[in-house]
Amino acid sequence: MQPAMMMFSSKYWARRGFSLDSALPEERPAGGGLSLNRSSSGKNEEKKGNKGNGKGESVSEGGKTAVVFSLKNEVGGLVKALRLFQEKHVSMVHIESRKSKRRNSEVEIFVDCDCSKKEFNELIQLLKFQTNIVSLNPPENIWTDEEGKAAFVSLDLDTDKCFAQVSPQSYAPVHSTHILSSTDLDCVPWFPRKISELDKCSQRVLMYGSELDADHPGFKDNVYRQRRKYFVDVAMSYKYGQPIPRVEYTAEEIKTWGVVFRELSKLYPTHACREYLKNFPLLTKYCGYREDNVPQLEDVSVFLKERSGFTVRPVAGYLSPRDFLAGLAYRVFHCTQYIRHGSDPLYTPEPDTCHELLGHVPLLADPKFAQFSQEIGLASLGASDEDVQKLATCYFFTIEFGLCKQEGQLRAYGAGLLSSIGELKHALSDKANVKTFDPKTTCLQECLITTFQEAYFVSESFEEAKEKMRDFAKSINRPFSVYFNPYTQSIEILKDTRSIENVVQDLRSDLNTVLG
User: Which residues are catalytic?
Assistant: First the structure.
């Protein structure tokens, strides 16, 4: 250990309202992902520290600050880094070290120092060439917004610019500040950065596929189970850019599809929303939607691409909410190809192609609905497990079981309703418990799979639901924004002024083209 690498108890920093952990990404046990700890750590402790002794007050009034950086665990590395503090006349009050949680070959150094803003900035400019800066804790009286809310200072390592992003939280100032660098992306849950990476998402099937539960209608039917294995093989072999393999459906499968198609078609004129009714005849014309024919996903995908920019791709079964929503961010809908078991055509414990083609596809052809779906997907990218679950629940009670008002009447736009004869009737009856859609409360509602929902949520329009979801998405704790580039079909991460300016410039160019 280097002589200057002193180890102090973490209680020392807890009393002062700051700890090495509070400046670093917080590990999340569930889901295998990590989320960035932006500002919540230590907020209560800091208030206590300021009341209990003078040290807490001196942090903001005396110009004290802190920096956390990481470097390789090798002889002389720390000495070189600390020499920079001396060169810039920055007084070190305390130093603490520990093994890096990011990389086994590195150590993380926490330095509490006393300096001016000018000295601090000059120090950081030198440090970033010799170390990986993890976090800064600048003086409160220098870098907070006018209202005193906590602000996150992001150092653009390419352009040497800083910009502040005001925290969405309304609680008192917290001094934990996060540096957004390329290494930060390793600390958030993985998400696909380009459309071809959806191949990875589609492989991670959680339920069903060819392995059926004991209470599944087809569990004891060996012929059906073998057929399901065929569909699994097709989905697992599919790669982005390939045409979707055409399926020759059996007479039994076509019969099952026909029963569902016929019975639901009777209800659509009085139960489905106008957008659904507008697109359904087009699917009959261009995609072979008939009682005696199961449409092919390739034909459906081509049709959707022309109408709203959406496409479909085959999937073997249930995906996790994170993987499924990631597809929507690219306007890609993961779609099953198998048919429910013929013993009970009006029931399925899982999404099948009847549900996908009759419930989802007609509305995915509507541009406004497509935009609504994509924005839910974009909000999920890089979000915490908790926030993804909230988004998935909102998705469930809108895109799966949502209601809207048209001409003073309730109409269904949720695919789970539009593909279920019994629940479609129930949801629009006096027996249903209908509430106004509000993402803040809807995200807490329990999702039921094998029974009717205990509550349904109504919006005035897709546009209203989209605006409410946009406002809700602002509460998601994510250290960056995302932008879908339709030309490259990739996700651009907006984490500094340069990346935001580039997107704005592209949008301005498109607008100038439109306006002539």
Answer: 355, 360, 400, 419
